[in-house]
Amino acid sequence: MKKATIVAGVLAAALAASVGLAACDMGGGNYSETFEGVVSTQTYESQDAAAKAFIENEIVDDGAEELNVTYTKTSVLTQEEIAALNLGDVKAEDVVTAEKGTVLYAPATAARAVCAAQPTGGKEVSLIILGFEDDAYRYYIPQPGVGEMISKSYLESVCDLSNYKNFTMTSKATTSVDMKASAYGQSQKTSYSTTVTITIKITETAALIEMTTSFKGVIPGEGSVNGPVNEKIYIVQEEDGLVAYYLTEDGTYARNAYEFEDMTSLSELFYYQQPDFDHTLFEKTKTGFKLSPDKFDEYMDEYYAELGDSFDDMPLNFSGEATYFVTDGRLSKGTAKISAKGGASQDGVSVSVSVGASATVTYTDFGTTTVTLPTDLNA
After folding, report:
1. Fewer Cβ atoms within 10 A, N terminus or C terminus of the chain?
2. In the chain, where do the E strands start and end?
3. pLDDT at 123
4. pLDDT tens, 1-35?
5. What residues form DSSP beta bridges with 195?
6. Burial class for 171, CB neighbours closer than 10 Å (0-12, 13-18, 19+)
7. Packing angle between helix 296-310 and helix 3-22, nearest 10 degrees?
8. Which pLDDT score is estimated for 187?
9. Is the backbone of residue 80 left (phi > 0), alpha (psi -120 to 50) or beta?
10. 3-class SS at 371?
């Protein structure tokens, strides 16, 4: 068992998880939503069929065939309420019936075991069913209710790149590691921490990324790593795509045409260092949405499965949370916390590790962010 390898791996795990959890984070005051709802493009032969399609397309993403889906009507919409819906190309006068309802979805075995009450493992979400002539039905995706899983369309609206063409993102992630190792009556304690601060300014003509990584303490096998490491990168749009210019130690900028070659626009830097968003992991709150507590293990499996494979000799118990806030229908700030504890003992050698990580991300200065390129880059 290699102490240094284990601890370095745990640190990487904590950093990756904290940044990943906070990546879509939002927060702060002035909470407000702009999602107006979306009507399905397809029609269905019954209300139940429309409700099932809603679950398949907007809620679970896959595995719908293994679910028992039950639709229940709760109320009827008035003509005024129908007219207020965001119907797109659908005309309100073509709507024959409209009703609010709930859809209970659960593993088929659990759903069969309980009739009146919500079965174990089941969840409920709201929707609207619109009826048309010739027994055709469409589902309407409203803003999710508090505690409900958010829909795919809702998350796409919040994270729509057109809302992130000009803004500043600031993030700070701190990770601390405490390790104790003992072998044949002798023990050693190690504590260190790392803080990564990133500021990304994005405009329609250029972007600036400034990152500072600060270490404090002693990493086994590497000695003291006190002191910050600074990086500064300008990104511009050129004929072949996005090109990065890195500030070197001698004060000049080195051109790199490959770092961001997968991006086609500056606004895509919104996803910088973020995992792919998965709406099935989040539930609605009064001020935005959050990682659903019962989805944390799934989140770790989806994004960090390799971490578990890396610690066969020392299994880790992870726990964490992430809170997201929405202002004017887009992300504004968020916080995340994650911790991991683990230990292992073999042939007289034992190691225990405790990791704590936290991250905060804010999105500010929408419409007012500016980036001024250095003179030599302008030249």
Report:
1. C
2. 38-39, 67-76, 97-107, 123-132, 136-141, 167-183, 186-202, 206-219, 223-224, 227-238, 241-247, 253-256, 282-285, 288-291, 316-327, 330-346, 349-364
3. 87
4. 343 343 444 444 444 444 455 444 344 457 899 99
5. 174, 214
6. buried
7. 150
8. 83
9. alpha
10. coil
Contact 342, 317 (CB under 8 A): yes
Q: What is the pLDDT of residue 170?
A: 94
**Helix/strand number for the chain, H first, E second:** 7, 17
Name the stretches of the chain with pLDDT < 70.
1-29, 63, 109-121, 219-226, 273-276, 303-313, 378-379
Count other Cβ atoms within 10 Å, centred on residue 185.
6
Residue of 45, 60, 132 lying closest to 103 (CA atoms): 60
Contact 359, 22 (CB under 8 A): yes
pLDDT reported for residue 133: 95
Residue 109's contacts (CB-CB under 8 Å, 6 or more residues apart) are none
Cα separations in angstroms, 115 against 70, 107, 118: 10, 13, 8
3-state secondary structure at position 236: strand
Task: Determine the distance from the C-alpha atom of residue 378 to the mean position of all C-alpha atoms in its chain, rounded to a whole number.
Answer: 36
Residue 156: CB partners within 8 Å, gap ≥ 6?
none
Kindly report the CA angle at 20 between 314 and 158, in degrees rounded to 5?
A: 150
* Predicted model pTM: 0.82
